[in-house]
Amino acid sequence: MSYRKSQAIFNIALLALILLLTGCASGAASAPLPSTLPPTVPVASSTAAITDLPPATATPTKPKPSPPLAAATPEPTATVPTSSTLTPIPTPATAGCPCPISHVVIISIDGLRPDALEEADTPTLDALRAQGAYQPAAQTVLPSVTLVSHASMVSGMSPEKHGIFWNSNDPELGKVQGPTLFSVVHEAGLSTAMVVGKPKLEHLVLPGSVDSYIYAGFTDRQVVNEALAVIQSDMPALLFIHLPDVDSAGHALGWMSLGQLLAVSLTDRLIGEVVSALETEGYLDQTLLIITADHGGSGIKHGSDSPEDMTVPWLAVGPGAPAGKVLQSKIITYDTAATALAAFGLPIPTNWDGQPVLEIFEEEPQ
Ligand SMILES: [Zn+2]
Q1: What's the gap in Å between 175 CA and the centre of ligand 1?
Q2: What domains are defined for the chain?
Q3: What is the distance in A from the centroid of ligand 1 to the CA of 146?
Q4: Which of 8, 9, 276, 320 is 20 to 30 A distant from 326 in Cα terms?
């Protein structure tokens, strides 16, 4: 096969992948896209990329000059511009900001390894990292699979306590043991919503704990469309958003493959839409945004105790969070729930394992 032909096939395959991952192929309604959208993904135009495609590890790297705050944001402001300042991803976390936190938004990027953020083109997450506090080596729980890990993320407990050891959607197996983050927040009189890309996450919903539970479909595009609708129509105090594409790409093409890094880039743009919506609707400066993952992976699998599977990124951006800080705290995924409760000023249930990451509430002196 000639080089030109194989490159053409490769390009078509990439386009198909992009369409698949964005949901365009299935005709999913598309939300307003940032005018800057066309992802400048790190597509290597070399034959090396072709031979690397399956579970490649030598994928194009991007220079990561931990971007200066203002410069790094070809950010959307995609939705209808308002009269508010259109600064891309404004900085809610100015030092000494007395802003109270009235909203917590947790975004879980299924299967995202932290080192993928160093290789993929991720302007949104780069800018958020520059504005927030980041731990690149947070740890998930064992087995490092989606349902078990998310159960810990939202229950504040280890699997031994929350009781979910399976990774499938089987209503007969019951629900997570509570109390969960959602049940505690709801009992405190605050509103809650979940928008997810895998139906099995319904195992995490205790009766009466989630005002709006939406399984949006199996793509990030579908999930974000629903999340944008929630933000624009009925923004809850606690919003959990689960994005499945990076995991899907990992299982299909390999963790850290070119295909998965493309998926990371696309997911990054969709997160930009969420942040833009929070800004446009006027919530962003009172919102603690936590972005993390349930597990990593290697080859086309995950679930083991290897560092590739267990290590996840953990980023917090919001009022009081020190900008550009690398967190020293050891973070385990169940600390996410405890941190969200701390942001609302709610007490942590005594049977939880999770501890709030208090470093993110420190306001650094000027
Ligand atoms: Zn997962």
Answers
A1: 18
A2: 94-361 (3.40.720.10)
A3: 3
A4: 276
